[in-house]
Structure formats: C-alpha cells, structure tokens
Amino acid sequence: MKPIIFCDFDGTITNTDNIISIMKKFAPPEWEALKDGVLQQKISISSGVGDMFSLLDSGLKDDIIQYVRKTAGIRPGFYEFVEYTKQANIPLYIVSGGMDFFIAPLLNEILPTESVYCNHAFFDKEKIYIEWPHACDDQCNNDCGCCKPSIMREIAGAEDFKLVIGDSVTDFEAAKQADFVIARDILLEKCDREGIPHQGFETFFDVIDILKQQEVVKA
C-alpha cells in the first residue's frame, strides 16, 4: 500500500486555531455561542463558521491577515516534514476548514496551491461571507463546509494507506476513514475513546518519527 497524507491546518500546522483567534480579536460576543454549538456538534460546521464570519466587517480583511501572520505560528518541524514527504515521495494534502485569505499567506511559499483544500472568503459585501467549494458528497450529510472525508474519497485510491493528521472535532470524520491517525488535543481524546488506530504528537518532528515507524512508509 502507498501512503497518502491528509493534514489539517488550524491548530495542527499552526500553533493556534486561527478561526478562534480571529473571533476573539475581532468578533462581537455572539461568536461564542456559535463556537460552542460547533464544538458540541449541535450546529453544523458550515452553518456555525459561516455565521461567525458574517459577524465581521469586510473592511477588516487586511487587519485579519496581518494578525494571523503575527500570531498563528507554524508548529515546529513543519518545514522539515514537508521536505520529508517530498523526499519520500508521499503525497501531502492540506484539508482545512479555514479560509483561503489567511491560509495562502502562510503556505504559498511551502506547498503548491493545488495541494491545499479550504474554504473561500469574500469581501465584496458589508460583512465577510464564506463559500464552500468542497462540500459533502452523497456519502456525507454532516454539512461539513470543507468536507474532509469527501476530499479523501475523491483523492485516495483503494491501494492507498490513508494517514490523517489533526487536532479537533472537525477532523474526526476524516479520522474514522483513515488507516492511521496522528493526533493531538481533542482529536487524540476522541481516537482514544473510539479505538481508532493512532499516535499522539506535539511537533512535526514527532510526525516524521511516526511516519518512519510505519511499515507502509518504509516499503
């Protein structure tokens, strides 16, 4: 089997969850209830996140980009991890519930744009609004927004060994489809509870070590 990697962005590649960070900095208090609803899986991701961004004025775009550049922080070892996947000829895809306008400035010099799947933000109205170009396929009805399981089904073949790297409840549906999960934070707890094959990580140096331990990567 051939390894293929699907990696989350917010809170995984970056040290912070950028949507949460943006909302804490720029949004009115109403965002908190929407965030809690998403995390408790009472509100769909696309509905909750879309409503959160609709609280923000479009004129904040440049301020938000600068804020994310300043605060996101790339997790240690990520650049080395990307280089390792290139050298090992392992396909790497970034699948993110985040937005193109703050992901692109952080990743464009590291990865080709066609390897990044995320949502699109628009600023031509008074408030920011989000479009979801990677919506759920006919096998998913969770209204995910950026549907990671659907992207995995689209890209991975039957001969691929699917590795998912993530940190949050928004990565859980993808984790259930993976052959192996490399997890931290909430996703680690969920994989523990559900008995999903996994290993924890803190840095991408840990991820490189885990990949080297996987027999499928050695093959």
From TrEMBL:
Pathway annotation from the record: Amino-acid biosynthesis; L-methionine biosynthesis via salvage pathway; L-methionine from S-methyl-5-thio-alpha-D-ribose 1-phosphate: step 4/6
EC number: 3.1.3.87
GO biological process terms on file: L-methionine salvage from methylthioadenosine
Pfam family, one: HAD
Domain of life: Bacteria
Catalyses which reaction(s): 2-hydroxy-5-methylsulfanyl-3-oxopent-1-enyl phosphate + H2O = 1,2-dihydroxy-5-(methylsulfanyl)pent-1-en-3-one + phosphate
Alphabetized UniProt keyword annotations: Amino-acid biosynthesis, Hydrolase, Methionine biosynthesis
InterPro entries: HAD-like_hydrolase_phosphatase, HAD-like_sf, HAD-SF_hydro_IB_MtnX, HAD_hydro_PyrdxlP_Pase-like, HAD_sf
Family in the record: Belongs to the HAD-like hydrolase superfamily. MtnX family.
Protein name in UniProt: 2-hydroxy-3-keto-5-methylthiopentenyl-1-phosphate phosphatase
Organism of provenance: Peribacillus castrilensis
Source species taxonomy: Bacteria, Bacillati, Bacillota, Bacilli, Bacillales
